[in-house]
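[step 3/7] fold_predict: job queued, chain A
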Amino acid sequence: MDIFGLNGEKQMGSKASGGVKSIDGLLKAMLVFSRTVDHSLETNAVKTAVGVALSSSKVQILRLLGHRGGQTASQLARYLGVSKPAVSQIIDTMVRAKLVKRVTAKEDRREVNLSLSAKGKGYAQKMLREQRQFLKNAMKKSRGLSVTRAVKTLQDLTEGLAKADKRFDHYCLQCGAHGDATCVLPGGESECLYMQHEAELRRRALARRSG
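[step 4/7] structure written:
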């Protein structure tokens, strides 16, 4: 019984790029890799670093605020790909946990910026140190794969997946939460909803100062 309807595809797949068997192998490898990253590098490494389990959204907020400084709730909503009410609930729990603090913007007192508290900064720094060490250990066990080659391969796969996804322009890869803050996709800065919004906020701030 062929519940996935693949019998017919097997014959066609031999002439297609990679073939069905090869593509199935790639699918398995990528999904298992994604699962491993989420379990080992995000969940376990973060818990080891700070001593408590944190949701993926909270980890991403800590990471973004740690690298980029103050952000508004609207910016965080675009960055996470959730509604503003949803991100407000996450922020409320992080404020209560003393990881994030609200600061009224000097330029516009109606606007509230969110930044890391001292505790939040400590969490972000510990997370980064633990994840760096985890990856160093992982690369030592990777059978000769260089960091440069790994980065290039993953970026190429990311670009291919993005180009194949017709709705990708409604999604943020969250590149801004990392050291150089650049998008991994060519021209991605001009298409990313989060980065577009950030650029618009910079233009408004410049206009206020000029006026």
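[step 5/7] annotate
The mean pLDDT is 82.
The radius of gyration is 21 Å.
exit 0
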